Amino acid sequence: MAQSPFIEQIRQELRLRQYSLRTEKSYLYWIKGYILFHRKQHPDNMGVEEVKSFLSWLANDRHVAVNTQKQALCALVFLYQQILHKPLGELDFVRTSRQRYLPTVLTREEVQRVLQHVQGKTALIIQLLYGCGLRIIYTHVLGQHYAGTLSPLDTLPP
After folding, report:
1. Long-range pairs for 152-158 at CB < 8 Å and ≥24 separation?
2. How confident is the model over 81-119, as pLDDT tens digits?
3. In which residue ranges of the chain is pLDDT below 70?
4. Cβ atoms 87, 80 nearer than 8 A
5. Alpha-carbon distance 3 to 11, whole Å?
6. Rounded distance, CA 77 to CA 86, Å?
7. What is the pTM of this model?
8. Which of 8, 9, 22, 114 is found 20 to 30 A from 130 (Cα to Cα)?
9. Cα torsion for 78, 80, 86, 90, to the nearest 10°?
C-alpha cells in the first residue's frame, strides 16, 4: 500500500534529523491518528483548537497514560513546527490523570520459593536476573549469541 506523499515527507524529515526508528514509528502513528480523528482533514487546514480537542479526547475518552499523551503532543508539535512551520503556541488541553502502572514485586521469601522449584541452567538464569536486578527481557538476550560463538550457558547441563 502506497503511503501519502505528506506522510513520506514527515518520514524523510524524521530520518534527516536522525530520530530513532521507534520515534519515527511513534510520531507517524500519532500524526495519522490525529488526521483520522479529524476525518482525514489535512493538518495544514487545522490548528491549535484541533490539537487541543485531540489531546483532550485521548485523556477523556481513551483514558491514556500521562506519557502516552505526552508522546502524542510531541508528535504534533514536531508536525506543526518542523513540517508545517506553524508553531502551536500555548495549548490548554485536558491532561490525563491516569498514573503509571506499578509492577507487582515478589518478596524475598516468594523468590526463594520459586528458586527451590528450578534447577540447572534455568536456576542460574533466574538467580542471575534476580541478583542483578535485571528484567525478564534479558533472559532472551542471555540465551542468544553470535553465529559461531559459544555462550557460557551452552556448557551447562540442562
Report:
1. 153/121, 153/124, 153/125, 156/120, 156/121, 156/124, 157/120, 157/121, 158/120, 158/121
2. 999 999 998 888 878 776 666 667 778 888 888 888 888
3. 1-2, 98-103, 135-158
4. yes
5. 10
6. 9
7. 0.64
8. 22
9. -80
Cα–Cα–Cα angle for 36, 20, 103, rounded to 5 degrees: 80
CA 152/CA 136 separation, integer angstroms: 19
User: Considering only CA atoms, which of 87, 93, 82, 58 is closest in space to residue 72?
Assistant: 58
Residue in 131, 119, 120 with CA at minimum distance from that of residue 153:
120
DSSP classification of residue 103: P
